[in-house]
Amino acid sequence: MTEITHHPKPGQAWTALSQHLPPRSPNEDAWWKLTGPHMAALVEAAGYPIEKQYEALLILYRWTASIAFIPYLGPSSAPPVWHSQLSHDGGPIEYSWKWNTASGEPNIRYSIEPIGRSAGTQLDPLNHQAFRELLHGLATAFPSTDTTWSHHFLAALYDHDHSKYAQEQEAGTKASTSVMLSTELLRKGPEFKTYFRPSKLGQGPFLSLAEWETAFSQLDPGNAARASVHEFLESSPEGQLMKPLTVSVDNIDPAKSRMKWYFWSPHTNFASVREIMTLGGRIDTPGISDQFDNLFQLIKAVLHLPDEFPETADLPAPKGEDEDGHEVLFRTHWYYFDIAPGKALPEVKIYIQLRPNGRDDASIAEGLVGWLKAHGRGRYCDGFLRVLAELAQHRRLDEATGIQTFLACQFKNGELDLTSYLGPEAFHPGRQTSRRATLRRGE
């Protein structure tokens, strides 16, 4: 059984910084005291040099304090004023741990939905104002940041009559997350990625493929990878069932940027995974059959499925799905297609949803760590378990799912390129007692 310590010691960088950084408003301090130790644990466990650990924490502190993140994470006590879809409890922040290969190192990233003071009102019905302020601030502070593609999608995927959005919301249309930003803590320095989920007037749950194509073609009209995705969506029975969700871009020189188009699939069976990740047989790289075998073994290990689990069977229905309020989009697999300019075929990544489909966070970690160690990739597993312990100080890992939210996989250089996505459960009842006490002391 994998051992997870439930009372980890604070990270060295966090301990040093927290003694000297000045206090701010009660909400800012509450978010910093939650996210700071988490970030310190992540970068320390992933083997970042000490100077990069300090850099990561100072980026979090400075850009959460003076311009964007923490003031725009909203009030720190439940219920959230704006329910972000970044986490199941409405919290506006998520972490990710990109796993090392046998000879490499992990990379850490965190994503937020900035929450403005007027989010959900006629002044800011889609909660874009804080996002725009943040994007502008980062582009000013980090000269290598190029927001050309971000501004294009802000113009192309949304309408701009706030009064009509407000009228839709008054008529019962529920506003939800449509923009997010992530900070990638690369060893060479930070980079920033933006995500856009369309929300046009009268749109319904999904933007049509034709409208997506209009937005894409204005940037890159002759993209071969995107054309192959359209062919798959039109011709494959699995492709015809998929629904487009989101696009993400790297805020760097567009000639070097990636453009990732995210989709939802209603199926979770292995045959469906194979069909989508090969784009209906169009992608047939050397060794791909063995890579699929490894992927299916990993899914079985993480979700504790029997070895003989049929390739054509969908995952068992999530336990308690009706009373737990899982939306259908958050039960089954997601995928993205990398359709950056210059590609003949896209790269494809799968996102396995762990919260509705796993037993509990301890079991998920046990299966993942066991698979990684069996494949010579266990060097950072103990550190990852320490991170889980840091994130789970409000509850036991074996009592529920929710901290490990997704496990993403892409075939790259003959290996499984893996990323674990982690949620802090910011509004979990176990956190709220101490949070309210902190706020009262600051009032």
From TrEMBL:
Entry keyword annotation includes Transferase: yes
InterPro entries: ABBA, ABBA_DMATS-like, ABBA_NscD-like
Pfam families assigned: Trp_DMAT
Ranges where the record places region Disordered: 1-22
Keywords: Transferase
Keyword hit for Membrane: no
Family: Belongs to the tryptophan dimethylallyltransferase family.
NCBIfam families assigned: arom_pren_DMATS
Protein name (record): Uncharacterized protein
Species assigned in the record: Apiospora saccharicola
